[in-house]
Structure formats: structure tokens, C-alpha cells
Specification:
There is one protein chain. It is built from eight helices and seven strands; from the N terminus they run E-H-E-H-H-E-H-E-H-E-E-H-E-H-H. The chain has helices at residues 35-52, 63-66, 71-74, 95-104, 116-129, 146-159, 166-174, 182-189, and strands spanning 17-22, 56-61, 84-86, 108-114, 133-137, 141-142, 162-164. Strands 1, 2, 3, 4, 5, 6 and 7 form a seven-stranded parallel beta sheet that branches. It has one domain (22-189): Isochorismatase-like (Rossmann fold), CATH 3.40.50.850. Helix 1 (35-52) packs parallel to helix 7, helix 1 (35-52) packs antiparallel against helix 8 (182-189) and helix 5 packs parallel to helix 6. The mean pLDDT is 97. It has 190 residues and is of the alpha/beta class. The protein is 43% helix and 17% strand.
């Protein structure tokens, strides 16, 4: 398909997308179901977004108690991206997050983070209500209990979240093997 040809609106577009990393914090390391998998997947997503020029935002839920963003994710956040502190479970309950997202003027949001049934789900629902297309790579999210993650997924899918994986999201953003970033992205996902 030639560049500039309209694509289906459920496919990611690097000029319309932003990645939002929700609360991938140290306190969850010992209690989250499959934490290491989630942290690795989020790190790959962030690196891929950076390679493709897609903006990244990050949040931290009550960092005084839950610690800061995990080192394996934080080290890949683009220069100048400081996690936005929040107390609201939904990122949309934090005015700084809402205004920062609005300034980017992007209508597709790729969510990643913790916990699937809580902060991720509430953020996804609020973003959809605000008119955003929300994509969620399944490999970038989990909860302390697997059943909570499963019900969070069901609820978000029924609300209109577009399911993905890190690989499928990055390949949609890449669009073609002719893109100059192809090799960099390929190295991340292989």
C-alpha cells in the first residue's frame, strides 16, 4: 500500500499515536503476576516508540509508597520524560496527565502497565469516553492476581479497547520494511 493511502482506523499510525506507561513501579516487582515479563515487554515498547519518534508518557502511582518506575523501563524513557505522579487510579484523574496528553494532539493511545484491572482499565475507559482510540498490548500488562487481569481484559475489550501485542503494535507503527527504522525495530522484537 503506497504511503499516504488511508488505513483502517483501528491500525496504529505513528503520527497519531502516543505510548503511555502506567505505574510500572518497583513495589510491584515481588507481587505482580509475571512482573519480569511485563517489565521486559514495556521496555521493548518504549524503545520501539523512541526509534519511531512516537511520544512516550509515564505515570507513577503514589511513588512515596510504591517506589519509582522500574530501572529496566526508566532507562529507556526518552530524554526529558519524567513520570507524572498521581493518586487517582485513572491517569485521566490527574490534571497534569490530561493536559500533557492534550498538548501532544494525538488521538491513538497505546497503554502499557500495571494493574490491568485497576489503573490500566480505568484509564482505558476514561480515554475512550474522551474520544481516544485505545490500544493495549496484552504482554505489557498484568495484575497481582491472574483472575483480576483476565476480568480487566474482558471489561476493556467490551468497552472498545483494541487488543495488541508489543510486536503487532510496533509493526503497525512501522508500516513498511522500507522504513529507515525497520532494522532497529526488528532487533527489538526478534
Amino acid at each position: 500500500m503506497p504511503a499516504g493511502t488511508p488505513r483502517h482506523p483501528r491500525l496504529l499510525d505513528r503520527d497519531a499515536a502516543v505510548v503511555v506507561v502506567i505505574d510500572v513501579q518497583e513495589a510491584y516487582r515481588s507481587v505482580l503476576h509475571e512482573y519480569e515479563r511485563v517489565a521486559r515487554a514495556v521496555a521493548v515498547l518504549v524503545q520501539g516508540a523512541a526509534a519511531l519518534g512516537v511520544p512516550v508518557l509515564a505515570t507513577e502511582q503514589y511513588p512515596k509508597g510504591l517506589g519509582h518506575t522500574a530501572a529496566e523501563v526508566a532507562e529507556h524513557l526518552p530524554r526529558g520524560v519524567a513520570p507524572i505522579e498521581k493518586l487517582s487510579l485513572s491517569c485521566c484523574g490527574t490534571p497534569l496527565f490530561v493536559s500533557t496528553l492534550a498538548r501532544l494532539r494525538r488521538r491513538q493511545v497505546v497503554l502499557a502497565g500495571i494493574e490491568t484491572h485497576a489503573c490500566v482499565s480505568q484509564t482505558a475507559h476514561d480515554l475512550i469516553a474522551a474520544g481516544y482510540a485505545v490500544h493495549l498490548p496484552r504482554d505489557t500488562t498484568s495484575s497481582r492476581r491472574a483472575e483480576d487481569a483476565a476480568i480487566g481484559w474482558e471489561k476493556m475489550l467490551s468497552a472498545g479497547v483494541i487488543p495488541a501485542t508489543v510486536e503487532s503494535a510496533l509493526l503497525e507503527l512501522l508500516r513498511t520494511a522500507e522504513a529507515p527504522e525497520f532494522k532497529a525495530v526488528q532487533c527489538l522484537i526478534r
